[in-house]
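Researcher: Sequence recovery benchmark, item below. Answer with residues only.
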C-alpha cells in the first residue's frame, strides 16, 4: 500500500506538472510510513529491505514477500497513473550513466542510513520523528538529484517510473545496481559504526 501511494504520487505529480513534486513525494512517503510502520515496518523500498535484512532487523524468509509486494504496488500505481494521466507528453529522462549511478548509490545510501538510524538503532528507539526524517531524506534527495537521475533511490520506484515512461527501459539497470548497492553499503557502515548492535 505504501509503495503504491508513493509511486502514484510520483507519477501524478511529475506527469501532471505539479509545481513541487519533491515536496509531494516526501510528504506522501512520510504519511505512508506513519500509517504503515506498525503493520509492516513501512518497508516500501527493496533497497531498504535489503539494508534491514543485512542489519539483522528483517527475517530472511520475509525479504522475498516484501520485495514482491513493493514491486507489485509500484506496477499497480503505474497502471493507475496511466489511466489517470494517459496521453501525457512527459518523456523519459535521459541520464548519463556515471552521474546517475553516483547519485543513486549515494542518496540510496543516505536514505537507508537514515532508516537504520531512526527506525532500528537503540539510541533512537521509540522516537516520534522517524517518518519525518525518512520522508525528508527522499524530498531532499529528489531536489538534489531529480535532474541527474530522476531520483528513484528505490528499485520499485525505478520500475514504476520506467512503466510510466519517466525513465528509459535501457536505464533500469542503473537504478537496480545503484539502489541495492546503496542499501547494502548503508548496512555495512551501520554495522561498523554500531558494533554493539
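Model:
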Amino acid at each position: 500500500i505504501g509503495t503504491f501511494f508513493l509511486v502514484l504520487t510520483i507519477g501524478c505529480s511529475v506527469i501532471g506538472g505539479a509545481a513541487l513534486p519533491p515536496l509531494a513525494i516526501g510528504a506522501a512517503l512520510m504519511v505512508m510510513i506513519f500509517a504503515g510502520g506498525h503493520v509492516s515496518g513501512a518497508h516500501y523500498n527493496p533497497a531498504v529491505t535489503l539494508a534491514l535484512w543485512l542489519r539483522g532487523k528483517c527475517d530472511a524468509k520475509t525479504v522475498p514477500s516484501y520485495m514482491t509486494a513493493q514491486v507489485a504496488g509500484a506496477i499497480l500505481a503505474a497502471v493507475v497513473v496511466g489511466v489517470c494521466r494517459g496521453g501525457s507528453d512527459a518523456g523519459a529522462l535521459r541520464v548519463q550513466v556515471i552521474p546517475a549511478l553516483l547519485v543513486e548509490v549515494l542518496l540510496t545510501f543516505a536514505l537507508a542510513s537514515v532508516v537504520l538510524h531512526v527506525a532500528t538503532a537503540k539510541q533512537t528507539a521509540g522516537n516520534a520523528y522517524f517518518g519525518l526524517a525518512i520522508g525528508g531524506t527522499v524530498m531532499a534527495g529528489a531536489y538534489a538529484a531529480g535532474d541527474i537521475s530522476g531520483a528513484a533511490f528505490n528499485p520499485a520506484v525505478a520500475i514504476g517510473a520506467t512503466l510510466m515512461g519517466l525513465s528509459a527501459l535501457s536505464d533500469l539497470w542503473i537504478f537496480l545496481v545503484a539502489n541495492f548497492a546503496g542499501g547494502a553499503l548503508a548496512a555495512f557502515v551501520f554495522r561498523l559504526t554500531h558494533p554493539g548492535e
